[in-house]
């Protein structure tokens, strides 16, 4: 048995925030108790001194791109799952926009099997909404669910046809599968490469209006209300989307949503990079600040933080999107969208706590029990009998973001060179120690 002794346990699923000892017996949590390890227990069990440390449920990330099969040079299931546990993430949902697309049981079973073989974070596949994620013919969702998919999504591409989306929601409803949507009206966003606003005007770059996201969020909320299906809105970035989702929840629409750390940490001003510095392509723009949806205005960033606080946004998800140097070392308009985030998400969330923007209990809930609940997953909790996914954190440990030292195979982080506080020291998945910080 393993005893995580006398740490500050923060488990929002049980409303626990105080000094406790967590007992791990095999693959399960035996109990969380107030009494510390006894001398007798120290003789026969593995006791980890957690004084001055936090003990959290394993983090759950609903939105991760692992690139395998097809683009293993950017990331593999093993390297992504290894990066996840270094960041305290014990369960990840793998997006289906691989090559081939995960629109069949064969690909879904491959992803799940590779995750099990890697032995780090738990890897749960997401299936595609449509065949090839082309937005036309529905994928066989029943087959995908039977193969282990926990949601369906064409993430990276919107389903532009309202009729196809309605049929997808009806099919998924009957299977009780969440439908994750990439909300983007391509007729509004086409040709743009960053948020439409003063920063884009100043930089001379074509913009993408927030309305491109908001319009599709509103459409899909109406369709979810019509069908009674479970809708999950990915990477919410705009204040208008927050407002629409909040109103829909109040009406009883079955909707959950997520926000990414880059959207609550950065604004579109980050596209200009460090003052007077040249970006990767030798131009005064930082392609590591290019993603879809794009970084928005400060008012949007504040709206996302407020929605994390009041529960409109259920989950923090990284949208971890690995790319090679050649994909980013281009003119900004031609660079690929996406940033990595598995190894920085916890520390960036804790920065909100330190700034007074988010109570620690809510921050931890959005990283653990909130996302698990959104997809009906039995994780993100330290309740007795639960799978023993736990993380030991030094909340005061400062560290410099050096992407070249990440476990991820890619280096495309917009936070390179930042100094963050809060470091994962130990990560357990199913009672197995899968990550230790050097020196621990």
Write a structural description.
With 440 residues, this protein is α/β, with parallel strands linked by helices. It folds into two domains: 2-54 and 388-401 and 417-436, Roll (Urease, subunit C, domain 1), CATH 2.30.40.10; 57-374, Metal-dependent hydrolases (TIM Barrel, Alpha-Beta Barrel), CATH 3.20.20.140. 31% of the residues lie in helices and 22% in strands. It has helices at 39-44, 77-86, 105-118, 141-146, 162-175, 186-189, 198-203, 211-227, 239-251, 261-265, 298-310, 325-328, 345-354, 360-367, 369-374; strands spanning 2-11, 16-25, 28-33, 46-49, 54-57, 59-64, 89-94, 122-125, 152-153, 179-181, 194-195, 207-208, 231-233, 255-259, 315-316, 390-400, 419-429, 432-436. Strands 1, 2, 3, 4, 5, 16, 17 and 18 form an eight-stranded mixed sheet that branches. A five-stranded parallel sheet has the order 9-10-13-14-15. The chain has a three-stranded parallel sheet with strand order 6-7-8. Strand 1 (2-11) and strand 2 form a beta hairpin. Helix 2 (77-86) packs across helix 3, helix 5 crosses helix 8 and helix 8 (211-227) runs parallel beside helix 9 (239-251). The chain is globular and about 70 Å long. The two termini are 19 Å apart. The mean pLDDT is 96.
Protein traits:
single chain; 440 residues; Urease, subunit C, domain 1; TIM Barrel; 8-stranded mixed beta sheet; globular
Oligomer: single chain
How many domains, in number, for the residues? Answer: 2
What is the CATH C-level name of the largest domain? Alpha Beta
The parts where pLDDT drops under 50 for at least 5 residues are none
The rounded Rg comes to 21 Å
State mean pLDDT (0 to 100 scale): 96
Number of strands: 18
Q: How far apart are the termini?
A: 19 Å
Fill in the CATH topology of the largest domain.
Answer: TIM Barrel
What spatial form do the alpha-carbon principal axes imply? globular
Structural class by helix and strand composition: alpha/beta
CATH architecture of the largest domain: Alpha-Beta Barrel
CATH homolog superfamily of the largest domain:
Metal-dependent hydrolases
């Amino acid at each position: 048995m393993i005893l995580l002794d006398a740490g500050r346990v923060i488990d929002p699923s049980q409303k626990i925030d105080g000094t406790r000892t967590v007992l791990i017996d095999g693959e399960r949590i035996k109990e969380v108790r107030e009494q510390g390890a006894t001398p007798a227990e120290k003789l026969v069990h593995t006791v980890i001194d957690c004084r001055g440390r936090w003990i959290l449920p394993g983090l759950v990330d609903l939105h991760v791109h692992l690139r395998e099969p097809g683009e293993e040079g950017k990331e593999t299931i093993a390297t992504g799952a290894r990066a996840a546990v270094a960041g305290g993430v014990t369960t990840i949902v793998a997006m289906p926009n691989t090559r081939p697309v995960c629109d069949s049981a064969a690909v879904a079973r491959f992803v799940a099997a590779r995750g099990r073989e890697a032995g780090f974070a738990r890897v749960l596949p997401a299936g595609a909404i449509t065949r090839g994620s082309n937005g036309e013919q529905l994928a066989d969702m029943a087959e995908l669910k039977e193969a282990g998919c926990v949601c369906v999504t064409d993430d990276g591409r919107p389903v532009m046809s309202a009729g196809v989306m309605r049929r997808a929601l009806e099919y998924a409803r009957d299977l009780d599968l969440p439908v994750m949507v990439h909300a983007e009206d391509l007729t509004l966003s086409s040709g743009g490469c960053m948020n439409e606003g003063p920063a884009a005007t100043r930089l001379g770059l074509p913009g993408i209006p927030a309305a491109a996201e908001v319009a599709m969020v509103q459409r899909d909320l109406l369709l979810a209300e019509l069908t009674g299906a479970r809708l999950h809105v990915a990477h919410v970035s705009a204040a208008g989307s927050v407002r629409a989702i909040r109103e829909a929840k109040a009406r009883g629409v079955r909707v959950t949503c997520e926000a990414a750390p880059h959207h609550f940490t950065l604004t579109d001003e980050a596209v200009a990079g460090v003052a007077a510095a040249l970006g990767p392509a030798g131009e005064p723009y930082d392609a590591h600040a290019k993603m879809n949806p794009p970084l928005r205005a400060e008012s949007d960033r504040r709206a996302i933080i407020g929605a994390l606080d009041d529960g409109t946004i259920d989950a923090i998800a990284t949208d971890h999107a690995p790319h090679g140097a050649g994909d980013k070392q281009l003119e900004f308009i031609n660079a690929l969208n996406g940033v990595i985030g598995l190894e920085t998400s916890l520390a960036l969330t804790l920065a909100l706590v330190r700034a007074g923007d988010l109570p620690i209990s809510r921050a931890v809930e959005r990283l653990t029990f909130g996302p698990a609940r959104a997809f009906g997953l039995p994780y993100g909790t330290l309740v007795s009998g639960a799978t023993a996914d736990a993380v030991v954190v030094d909340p005061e440990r400062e560290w410099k973001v050096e992407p070249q030292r990440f476990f991820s195979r890619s280096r495309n982080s917009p936070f390179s060179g930042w100094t963050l506080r809060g470091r994962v020291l130990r990560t357990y998945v199913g009672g197995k120690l899968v990550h230790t910080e050097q020196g621990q």
